[in-house]
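Give me the fold.
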Amino acid sequence: MSVPFRGDNSATQCGAPTVAPPRLPRRGVTCSRGPIVGRVTGIRTFGRGRSLALLTLTLLLALLSSVAAAQTTNPKIDILQVSGALDGTVAGYLDDALRTAADEGIEVVVLQLSTPGSLGVPSARFVDAIVDSRVPVAVWVGPPGARVTGAGVELALAADVLAMAPGAVLGAAVPADLGDTPTDAARRDGAARLGRLARARGRAVGSAMRFASDGAAVVAAPDGLEALSDDAVLPWAVDPDNVQLLGEQALVDGGIVDMVAVDLPDVLRQLNGRDVTRVDGSTRRLSVDPETATIRFNNQGLLGRLLHTVSTPTLAYLLLVGGIVALLFEWFQPGFGVAGISGALLAGLGVYGLMALPTQWWAFALVVGGLVLLALDLAMARLGAITLAGTLALATGSWWLYRGPEALQLAPWLIALVVLATVIFFVFVMTTVLRAQGVQARAGMEAVMGRTGVVRSVLNPQGHVFVGGALWRAQAPADAGQVRTGSQVRVTGAADELTLLVEPVERVGAERPRDANHV
């Protein structure tokens, strides 16, 4: 009886007898019909291809696994860089960076620090971020010449490892916030906090407490320097009689810092193999060989850097004055354009900076009021007593704008320059511009008299209309109510050199057919 093969109904292939089951032909044997040879050869070829693909995939996965394993064994280091006041943007940046470092298995975070203190943020916020970090934190007061005072001293003493660069200054921890007054009570509280931090980190408690109680500071002596010069410039809160110039050995042996490093690579070299004792008492040996470690600079984002930058006294003041001047300039124009948008943006950034700074808001009101008075007198074309009052208000408000130490105050030459430039702009530049603008405006108004335009912003009763190919300030009759955007109006006259008088078309009867001048 015949046995079919793969669904073949024929009991004979290549002449095989019907009494025996069909046998697969050997390699190289052909037959006239050929279906069996074709099928068998195809099956063998597919099997070899699949095996080769699986082998290649296995080798590729093994290679990728070895690369991933090599990468995971290399230590990873995050470097953060903070300079300037410790404000809210820095606090958020530090929290996020330390949280990310813990989630990504970073070996150590190195914080390069140079700050005069905090602004509106309690020093405990920064200390807690360092102490509670699951990743060891090393603070380097650098680069050479860096200064850490105020709340920055508490942050530095909270670190697992504290390093200084040659020429750097550390001390004068009171006031912690730049807007505070250094009272005796603040010094006692600050000394107690610094003493607890130094004790927890195994550093010299007495030296740390003197940073707050006596306004003391230490300077890491550069090579060859044995004493500070008489004209050396120190941070404003430092007591010159309580400054110590100490070499590397004296700083380390005295328990003030853990090491002195000239740059970041030197910091990493000295951290490698160092045993770090955490606040909970656990000990960890750092493995951060800079030759094999993966080093990442985790910098603050663009928005954070922008907001941090505008929170400086001088820049916030310039942004505020420049933004308001641009807005007032736009007020004298028939529409709202680039100057207005730019002015609103600049003024907004300036106000944000003032909110982060210790601003005296009555002085802020004087600055704004002075600028408005200058613009008002210009609009009235008087340039007399009101201009003088505006100038005095601007100067007084600028002088008293910030409270706090001298480091936050605006330079007298800067105030004088801003006030003089502002007066020249309103009294001379804008007067010339408006005179020329008035001639052009009168000519333009005459050209659009009687023409029909479209309302672009609601007339209530003033707004803007588009007529004669330009955007004009317009005023509707008081009894017309609100004239909605998109309504048609007809120009009937001029309220002043910049404002058209218009009448809604529907008020004067049926809509007239459009002419060639219709917009």
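Residues 1-46, 66-72, 509-519 have pLDDT under 50 and may be disordered.
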